[in-house]
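look at this record:
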Amino acid sequence: MACVAPATGRVRENSGSMSDSKRVLFLCAQGGQQDAELVASVGRALQNAAGGKIAVSVASLRNRDANSIREQAPTLDVRRSFEEFRREKSYQDIDSQVMRLARDYGDVNWWAVAASERSFIDASFLVGGLGQRSESREYVEALIASMVCYFEAILSSEKFSAVLCPEADSLISHVLYQVARRLRVRIVALSPNAWIREDGRPGFFLCCDEFLHSDRMEAFYKELGQSGLSKDEQTRVRRFKRVVVDFDVQRDYRIATNNSFVVPAISPNLKALPQYLWENASRDKDVEYYKIDVFAKAKANILRAWRRWRSKNLLGTGTINVPRRSVFYAMQYQPEQSSLVGGIFFANQIATIENIAKALPFGYTLVVKEHPRGRGARPAWQYRHLAHFPNVQFCDAGAKDILKQCEATVTISGTIGLEALALDKPVVVLGNVYYDFADIVYKPKSWSEVAQVLRRILIDREYEQNASRQDLIDRFFLSYLVARVPALLSKDSAAEIAGAIIAELDVAGRALRPEDKKTNDRVENG
């Protein structure tokens, strides 16, 4: 079994050769039938592509998903679901389990994990704009303790080489990350986060933790520090940086999903509302913890429409009227994994913006842009409160147009960091995100350090004086492209997904060999 560092889950030793038989646990989280179809198709493809060298077990949230996977893929080892496990109550009393989690998982802050679940905690400070229900401490503790016991029972039953799971955008997957890390089981997360397309092709990443870090990306980045980029690689990176700079989120989101990026303030699923309400009424919140409070949700829909109208004159204009000495903060959409997991201690963006404003050097302005999808989610008084700060200014021009006029950007974990790197702008990352390992990215550990970093960037001009910054930026982007798997994360791409997982398990924890690099280049260049 691979040796995993307790704090980050990064693999430190080779996980072995594919000549050794492996067993992996595949999680079907809360995505319903679509999630079940993906697990079944990729599980089958894994077994077929590995020639029997990989045994696939499946864990699931609900009985119906477990049964669906059994029907679609009879050769998979589908374990009892969390629903069945919890109803059997085959674990010890909850209070003793809660204290065991506090004691034995010393590097896990379980309340931070709990706050990543948007159904019953408003860590995003939307104040009713989400429509989450309220739950007791006992409910949350029992839910998480039960999930931990469920995964411990499976992962302790025999030797697992890895867990395969979606990114930590659901509570049950976030809990699995913690259990797998403690039991020293490799994490391979499937993240559809690579939807800035190279040559028009979709892609996804295989990640090693809940923050979407990629072992493959980081290993190749280190290798490039020794060898540098070839001329062809430099050309490829320059071409992709232009793609990033030209990236239009609303256009590309519609291409990728066939849906509008900006959703209506009132629920966009009005036609399916009766069926949704019927299904919600039958949910057991002790299992399907994302069950909604219908009254709170209805109130939130009305609130969002009202708030969008109330705040429309508070978010600045589309004119690029950025002051001469400025730093950019692009607000992230909430509630979402990027802030609730990658930056949970910064998820209250109102407090975060306040603190950035306090950390700015004298004479500088913080330019803030609300996320296009976030309008109406939060009350207008929050924008008025931020505008009260003399060095905070709202602007509603295009994000990259603002970024080009600013001297730096600060983000929790947003894609704006990639866009800033492509534009050769300094990036300050507050949370945890897949690109924060790059040497060119600033990652302060406290608010006082944020102030020091901003002074070094803006007053001392440290970033501008870094003669190697272009090389560092290019190294990162090539590593990003090498780690990217050029396929849709869907059942139709099961063979490609399975092949990527097999390669990931085989090369884990070491720098890519020259033949690995060449193979990946052939795949990427099609």
Q: What stands out?
A: The two ends are 34 Å apart (CA to CA).
